[in-house]
Amino acid sequence: MNVPFAMWSYPRFTTQRAEKLRAEASDAVGDPFLALLARAKLLGSTGQMPEAQEILRHGEPHFPAEAIQAGMFRHLLPAAILVGGIGLAKAWLSKRFPSDYATDIEVIQSDTPFDVAHLTIQGKTATFVFQASLIHSAAAESTLGRWVDILPIFHRFMLSSHRVDGHVDINLGDSGLRPGLAFSEYRPGHFLIPDASYMDMGRYEPIRNYFRNHDVPWTDRRRIGYWRGTTSGRPIDQSVGWRSLPRIRLCELSAENPNVLDAGITGVTQIDDPAANEWLASRNMLRGHVPPETFQFHRYQIDIDGNSNSWPGLFIKLLTGSPVLKIASAEGYQQWYYDRLRPWINYVPVDNTMGDLVKKLKWLRTHDDAARKIGAAGRGLAEDLTGEQEVVRAAPVFAAAVRAAALAPVIDLRFATDTSDHEVLRSGWFPPEVDGVNALGFESRIEIAKPYGLGDFILIVELSPAARPPRRVAIIANGEVILQRSLQKRTTFYCPLPHHVACASGTLNLCFCLPDSETNAGQDSPLDARMLSVKLHRVAIAAAHHYTGDEHPDLARALAALRAGRGAGSMAHDLWGPVRTVPSQAPPLTVRTCHDTIVYADLRSGRLRHAPRADAPRNLVLVCGRQRANLRRVTSDGVLFGVELRPEGPHMAKVDPASLTPEGVVSTFSVTATEFATPQTFVIRGAGLYLSAELGGDVSLSRVAAGHWERFGFEPVQI
Prior knowledge:
Helix content: 25-40%
Structural class: alpha+beta
CATH architecture of the largest domain: 3-Layer(aba) Sandwich
Number of helices: 17
Radius of gyration: 29 Å
């Protein structure tokens, strides 16, 4: 059913976009397909929804949804949604992706970001829900286009054995705004699938073929590092602003080392300063646009993040066969295939500060054979990432995201005669029984798919003694010991499973070491040669951020082990400091950010975060004394834990070491009123850095100057 026109938000186009649509609408001979869509969109923008839908309905038979090229379908389906033709869109989806399930589309008012699609799967019905504000957003066409790009992945998942009921958010922006599926991210709770550019650009098949057929010999390639791109990204230093963009720093390095590095800006984007072009030109940083087909004329390729990863940039550079020097993402952004990148095997790692870039370029120049082998291995990786294969691989990722959204394990295996899960059993097991499977001998092995998703995991193992207790058990995951315990009775163990261990290879190999195995032979069964120790009932893997540690003693130990394993550089926040009290003369305050959100302690990620008032638990307070302030986490029973923050980000060198504890964290802060009096705002500072409420929801002690994100307000609370 189409949405009632009176309830529909009319699509709104920028002046430039509207002019282009009018030009396309008048050029039916040049491109009748674009003319058809342009006429419909223009009518929709003036509220003439029935007329717009009628144009699409009568025009679609000339461009049948089931037969047109993927790029055309990418424009046809969004056009129908923009003008309220939900019925048309659903009919065209069923033609394009014939199946045993039905796809529904809803557009509603909600607090979901407009570039996040919410998917619900129930039986044989899948429903995509979009935020109504998307329709009149300037990004509506591109966002809906990205949704169409990933429909083949969704369709493959729905037809696969991985299909599961549930719901999940699908992030259609450059990075994740809600936990769920995403194209590029670094935070726990996100599951990476092939990005929209990869899908829209035919899995890069045209550029693959070009490089195959027009390969530039190694000896003909310039012995220089090469990069071209726009000014996207985030400034390193807010006090400097866009001039501290990492990509501009790369161009500065090029100017300082022109014999080894050729980097230039091809377009100014995301910068409002009218002086930006002149500033860049005066420093000889501006270059003309170059097609990617020319990349292979250079022997060393540079890859650097923009707003997130460079998406087609890295992939195309790998395809050139030249070694790629990948500048590390400051936040840790990655894409769906990054777990297959191997440093010094198929790419060259570079620190995010770029302090080692020139040195590594010079190394490649003096180690030509090694450089050529790294480039060849990089090309081999990119060639292996074929379209059909990557779409198939994405199906279990899709399923894992749906399970995680329900706070369920991403993998859950039960061992009994009536299940097929025992197929993962390798050596050292007897046949499954009604409830569990007995281990044979001193060592038993399991091989399962590696868990999908970013962040650390918890391995859940349920065991019982198969002979008289106690029975010692050690569990080794991909070569690392993650559990050593003595088993007295049937018990569920929660074991720390760091992401780097779980994803060290294509599969997760578990080895159960059982030193107390003994023969089952006895007076009643003298010929029983079985060596028994334990019986395995269940193996599951869950995302670590689903748990707080309060659920089970083993969980608390597992989470503590994961936090300790991250090291001082990555464990930025400590939410479990010594129990504290609030002085009677210092009433606790709730911290409000410039985004009108509330700062809270997120026990699942182990960080301070901020969220809308309706979503943020009121479990964090600021206590201000005469000369200092402290952060406290409040439990449900009123206990206050000290909260300490570790400085992070690119300004670590500017930290005042005298303000740090021996553990390298900040436990005491200063609070100062800003110049802005309406409403009254404050800055919170520790060890020389300002607290910042990031756009993505994180809170970090990371800025050397106070900008908009560093302004906070306070509200009194009662404990």
